[in-house]
Amino acid sequence: MSVTVAPTVLARTLGDGWRRPGASAHALADALRGLVVDGRLAVRTRVPSERALAPALGVSRGTVSRAYDRLRADGYLVSARGAGSWLTLPDGAGPGDPPPVPGAAGAAAGRARAVDLTVAALPAPEPLLAECAARAAAGLSRYAATLGYAPAGLAVLREAIAARFSERGAPTTADQILVTSGAQHALHLVLSLLAAPGERVLVDAPTYPRTLSAVRAARARAVAVPLGASGWDLDAWDAAIRAIGPRLGLTIPDFHNPTGLTMSAGDRAALAASAARAGMLLVADETLAELRLDGPAMPPPLAAGDPGGAVVTIGSMSKSAWGGLRIGWIRAAPRLIRELSAARADLDLAGPVLEQLVAVELLARWDEVLASRRSLLRPRRDALLAALAEHAPAWTCRRPRGGLSAWVRLPAPVATRLSSAAAREDLLITPGPSFSVDGTFEHHVRLPFTLPPAELTNAVRTLAETAGLVGSATTMEQSPAPAAI
Amino acid sequence: MSVTVAPTVLARTLGDGWRRPGASAHALADALRGLVVDGRLAVRTRVPSERALAPALGVSRGTVSRAYDRLRADGYLVSARGAGSWLTLPDGAGPGDPPPVPGAAGAAAGRARAVDLTVAALPAPEPLLAECAARAAAGLSRYAATLGYAPAGLAVLREAIAARFSERGAPTTADQILVTSGAQHALHLVLSLLAAPGERVLVDAPTYPRTLSAVRAARARAVAVPLGASGWDLDAWDAAIRAIGPRLGLTIPDFHNPTGLTMSAGDRAALAASAARAGMLLVADETLAELRLDGPAMPPPLAAGDPGGAVVTIGSMSKSAWGGLRIGWIRAAPRLIRELSAARADLDLAGPVLEQLVAVELLARWDEVLASRRSLLRPRRDALLAALAEHAPAWTCRRPRGGLSAWVRLPAPVATRLSSAAAREDLLITPGPSFSVDGTFEHHVRLPFTLPPAELTNAVRTLAETAGLVGSATTMEQSPAPAAI
Q1: Residue A44 φ/ψ region, left for φ over 0, alpha for ψ in the -120 to 50 degree band, beta for the rest
Q2: B324 near A149, Cβ under 8 Å?
Q3: Least CB-CB distance to B151: which of A104, A334, A350?
Q4: pTM for the whole thing?
Q5: Does residue B250 contact residue B201 with C-beta atoms inside 8 Å?
Q6: Residues of A with CB below 8 A from B137's CB?
Q7: Please, which pLDDT band fits residue B128 given cuts at 50, 70 and 90?
Q8: What is the ipTM of this complex?
Q9: How close does chain B come to A148, measured CA to CA in Å?
Q10: What is the per-residue DSSP string for A195-221?
Q11: Which end of chain B has fewer beta carbons closer than 10 Å to its terminal beta carbon, N or C?
Q12: Distance CA B230, CA A213 (A)
């Protein structure tokens, strides 16, 4: 019943980034360890037999065998007679612990000591959340006489979300809104309805790893459109649209995850127009849009310059308010909203009533919510940047004007090896290749600034020390620099 | 952007039940109307052109054209120049109204007058729900310092659900439980992980329509195993398992939806053993299991006789407590639970914390919850049966000992036409073919007993009168009796 990753799939997931002259078993072990450490393969994934994997990788069976031995010795692979071998983490995570998914890693019994920089998320805004939950609970009885099913969401919440879009510059009515269980659920629903297996979907490169995994889960194929150093490359988007004729393109226009870039007003208009001309739905993920910390005012939402319905916006309260509140939304043309509502019934029928009432209460005090997030985040961002300047002066990053993380460029393409080495120091980070479809971005790591300042400072110091060891150990086998922004 | 149903898909969905000597346009129109009235095709589904549909059905283009004309005249089809034709309901449901999904039909502006017997669900148990929501809201602050993500569910709820399984006779630990957003979400997640596109999945015939649509949404193929008149046909299950070698089989062992049958203890043990021998996961949907009204004690859960992990149980609070509370669960071997938790992250990351705390409070008062449901349901069931005896003495049904609905056998195979005619009287019912993969069960309708007694009595009277008209009008064209249980 366990999932075994097929040899060809594992070969594709590994890519060619690990292939270097000499020391191939060592490099293969490092690459496999990287996949499990950064969550690209789930803990407990069964690996193919040595006999099966070797031809898929074009290496000898002995190479695979030595790589597996090394992983076993380091605690990343467990084998049982008659049950094969599976990936694990060396911290003693036993059968009763949850798998390492966002927010769970730090909470799992065996990883209590680890500092988790893989998750960009904050604790709840208190006492605001408690007050809103109490008011929502008091108002629940108004809905008790109904059957409780509202696949598109409660009218009162759809109206409140529409009003917030209108305030931000994109006039919106309630029938353009579908309430979801977070942005990931929204993306899954859009892909379920609009991406057939094998269909190609345009994505930013780099982009949020769970955007890529949602595309994979829909059995669609992500086609990367590279970001430039300072923003979106509209010629590249136009060329990809012309070459592929995709039905869907996915982008993150505000405090882009992971780069932190924000799309200019002019680029928004041009990209929406390109999508409209080509009949492509452009899905704008606005999860981080409301987390501006300083710097210039935000341009209007991408949807503002799109009268024709080519832009589908997805958003969420998970980053602006709290991840434990599972409320997101889709903004689209009313006809598409109706189709998505009907399709949603096969996925999970409808969303919870009480949770939606909490969201209504939070939106009524939205300025307070955002102010509490900003006052928490600004000193944390500044602490991260200060620590980087002090402990890792050769690393570079753009100062994030919003969002939850910094995209840090390393002086060498060692991100995966750095994350593996850091994991041995109980410090978890997400290396650049997790943000790509092809294993590129080895020059980058994403560092969230969501932990308290002192923890961030300590983490950066540890990371810089670890990088010093990784960097000197790997100078001899450095490969050509991969694509970077 | 609208969904067009492909000619071959529409032909398959229609089945052959509508084909009768003569009057084929009339019969085709009736069959298409049936699909939209009972929700097997969503409102706003675009239909193929007459030219495209005719060869798929093996009829002349003129026949399709006359059927479409008739649907247009009756208000079930709308055509617009250059935009094709799409199905709709003749009650004036406009672009701003939600689509007809469970519980929404009666609430939509244009259908406020309709009596909705398509939904088997109850209002919330008050004041219990309000009290539990208030306690949960007060306890939310304990989780505010966390990031709020628990893909397998909060430990306290997993423990409470496991304890309830143990009480019911299937000893269970928390690591065997994954909390979902209802049973539909649980089924979607299981299918996402374990059913590849094109893969065959065994299902009961008849079965819950959204079980079938979840299989379709996963692009898998439902293979029906017929129920016998008094229970499961284990020889048929064994033969299907041998013939197909499926990875998954889906059944509803307790107060089966729609037949109301409950699987005997002996059959449970035998079916679990067959599944274990064949390496098939048997998914038992226990959504209605706790709604026993009277009659013999329930056998232990299917999972109780399955030490080897061949049984996966899904359950929900939607029917026992309230549909507006989106809490369900999966019980399976710990390893599979971990794999499902990891897969869930791509669908919606995790469930809401507050909602889970409400579920914990409700489970602490679960006997009260169930008692309130039973005291509501018993007189409603009795009213439905009394009304059937009085107004439709030729219709037969087994007395439901639990669950939420009766499976009523009509004296003629007119269920689809009856539901179409009833819809014109503002009475919505689900005809038998909605519960099958092949359009059979035209002798049956499912009648929930969830409305107040007086409304049920009125509805049965209207339905019996309508059936009198339908029956006499169709005697001449009666087809051979379809499969029935």
Answers
A1: left
A2: yes
A3: A104
A4: 0.80
A5: yes
A6: 130, 133-134, 136-137
A7: very high
A8: 0.80
A9: 4
A10: --TT-EEEEEES--HHHHHHHHHTT-E
A11: N
A12: 46
